[in-house]
Design goal:
Blueprint (H helix, E strand, L loop, with lengths): L24 H5 L4 H33 L4 H21 L3 H6 L1 H13 L7 E4 L2 E7 L2 E3 L1 H19 L7 H5 L2 H13 L4 H18 L3 H20 L2 H11 L10 H13 L24 H34 L3 H25 L17 H19 L4 H7 L3 H13 L1
Antiparallel strand pairs: 1-2, 2-3
Helix pairs in contact: 2-3, 2-13, 2-15, 3-15, 5-6, 6-8, 6-9, 6-14, 6-15, 8-9, 9-10, 9-14, 12-13, 13-14, 14-15
Length: 417
């Protein structure tokens, strides 16, 4: 009796592409370098919006605590400057390098996460033991696990692609190793990051072509585990009950969600104006972190929130395009994992701010304040840009286009002539 073949990873679309410029708008969107430029453009705009909103939302409390309105902003800008060279270096890496170092990088990330349990090194914030302090540097190791696990899943599942229709090959080693990564994060009581990690794993398995019937069992297990972790924690149980209750205490457990709603509602269509938020005057907790989307809506209105949603939509478009066009299953699977991480986390954060989900403490990627999250998100975007550069026809199209320096020298030469 012969075994049935598994559903392969998503086949890339084989549309013809021509390096260089196209004569029509449709041709521009079908260009070999569309994914590359959309990723760079959307990510750069989100980063700029994030820095501006961190400055605006943190200025009041920063002035009160540090004597300057720029303390939190400068810290975030510093991490952006750290993340930029990492993004550039990773974006120039050949795809084979990511495959080669997938195992050691994931092992190092898990060992890094274990440092949160070392006395005088690991620290807790908001009831979660998920930070490491070495010297004067604070870092959140769980952010590194996201990228490491995405690349590792891509490498492992791509090698086992013809066998993923079989339970044992679909589960081993992907599920045990991902479970280990989840376990060390949950040991620090960080359920929000663990939920994002589940989305990441699900995205990798789906793009790899794991049969949908296996997702049904996995979903039941995930729901059961989440329910168990919720009922065994008074803090999490109170959050869920307050979220579903019509009699939530607006001066206590529902205070943050209520004031987040106030910020969004008062913004209207065009907002109160940049820097004019009322909620940032110590009314809304975590205004520059998890609830920065509320301040954005208050100051820039519905137009500003839709702009941010559109930019995340462009990121999703570029990642889906890489999955469809790239011939390498490793690239497809890793991109699917990063897609579910970044876009899924953004949707969860926004759902929390507008009251569609209980408060679980995940930042808005590229926008919320937070150094570790910003650096690792920029690193993930660097990996995606490297993938986009290796799409069919992309390398040739990029090489055919004159560089900025050459164009500038040509202009100067013509002006002198």
């Amino acid at each position: 009796m012969t075994a049935t073949t598994s559903r392969p990873a998503r086949e890339p679309a084989r549309e013809p592409t021509v390096p260089g410029r196209s004569g029509s708008m449709l041709g521009q969107w079908n260009s070999a370098v569309t994914s590359y430029y959309v990723l760079i453009g959307a990510a750069a705009l989100l980063l700029v919006v994030g820095l501006v909103m961190v400055l605006s939302s943190s200025s009041v409390e920063s002035l009160d605590k540090n004597g300057t309105p720029y303390a939190v902003f400068l810290n975030q800008a510093q991490f952006a400057l750290i993340g930029l060279p990492i993004l550039i270096v990773l974006s120039r890496m050949p795809v084979r390098i990511f495959k080669r170092f997938a195992w050691p990088v994931l092992g190092a990330a898990i060992l890094f996460q274990l440092l949160v349990f070392v006395p005088h090194v690991g620290t807790g914030v908001g009831g979660n033991q998920n930070w490491v302090r070495i010297g004067g540097i604070n870092a959140q190791p769980s952010e590194a696990i996201k990228l490491a696990l995405a690349v590792w899943l891509g490498a492992v599942l791509a090698r086992k692609l013809p066998l993923l229709h079989q339970w044992r090959h679909a589960l081993v080693p992907a599920v045990p190793v991902a479970g280990l990564a989840l376990g060390v994060i949950l040991a620090g009581h960080d359920l929000g990051t663990a939920m994002v990690l589940l989305l990441l794993v699900a995205g990798a398995l789906f793009v790899a072509g794991v049969p949908l019937r296996m997702f049904g069992l996995a979903a039941l297990l995930a729901i059961g585990m989440t329910a168990l972790l919720t009922v065994t924690s008074k803090n999490r149980m109170h959050r869920i009950l307050d979220w579903v209750s019509a009699e939530c205490d607006v001066q206590s457990s529902c205070y943050q969600t209520l004031h987040g709603g106030y910020g969004l509602a008062s913004g209207g269509w065009g907002g109160l104006g940049l820097g004019e938020s009322r909620e940032k005057w110590s009314y809304l907790p975590a205004a520059h972190n998890d609830f920065i989307f509320a301040i954005l809506g208050e100051e820039l209105g519905l137009i500003g929130t839709l702009l941010v949603l559109a930019l995340f939509g462009l990121l999703a478009f570029a990642m889906i395009r890489i999955i469809r066009r790239h011939p390498d299953p490793f690239v497809q699977i890793t991109t699917g994992a990063i897609l579910c991480w970044i876009i899924g986390q953004a949707l969860v954060n926004i759902a929390v701010v507008i009251g569609l989900a209980p408060v679980i403490g995940v930042p808005l990627p590229l926008v919320s304040a937070g150094g570790s999250a910003l650096v690792m998100t920029m690193a993930a975007l660097g990996v995606l840009i490297a993938f986009a550069r290796s799409e069919p026809g992309a390398a040739e199209a990029l090489a055919a286009r004159p560089s900025v320096v050459r164009r500038s020298l040509a202009v100067i030469g013509r002006s002198r002539g």
